[in-house]
Specification:
With 87 residues, the chain is mainly alpha-helical. It has 2 domains: 31 residues; 33 residues, no CATH class. The protein is built from 4 helices and no strands. It starts with 7 loop residues before the first helix and ends in a 13-residue tail after the last helix.
């Protein structure tokens, strides 16, 4: 297996960590990734899904505070004509 990291800063960090711990550069990267992953909750949704869920919750909360008549006006039907052009 091969992992080709083309980032000098990452190479420097791996080298320094290996010198300080006595592990190989691969060993310190493995330990760092294990530590990082252990700090994350398992099954965490990707950020885009989290954002979509947050927006959905905001929309639900917003809709609770307006009347049906106000909601109808927000649909925008009166903003465009039959051809989809601005009215």
């Amino acid at each position: 297996m091969s992992l080709n990291i083309k980032n000098q800063h990452v190479h420097n960090l791996a080298r320094e960590a290996a010198l300080r711990t006595g592990l190989t550069q691969t060993g310190v990267i493995e330990k760092a990734l294990e530590l990082y992953l252990s700090s994350l909750p398992e099954g965490q949704d990707p950020p885009s899904i989290i954002k979509a869920q947050a927006l959905s919750e905001i929309a639900v909360e917003f809709s609770r505070g307006i009347s049906a008549q106000q909601l109808d006006r927000l649909k925008g039907d009166d903003l465009y004509d039959e051809q989809g052009l601005p009215a």
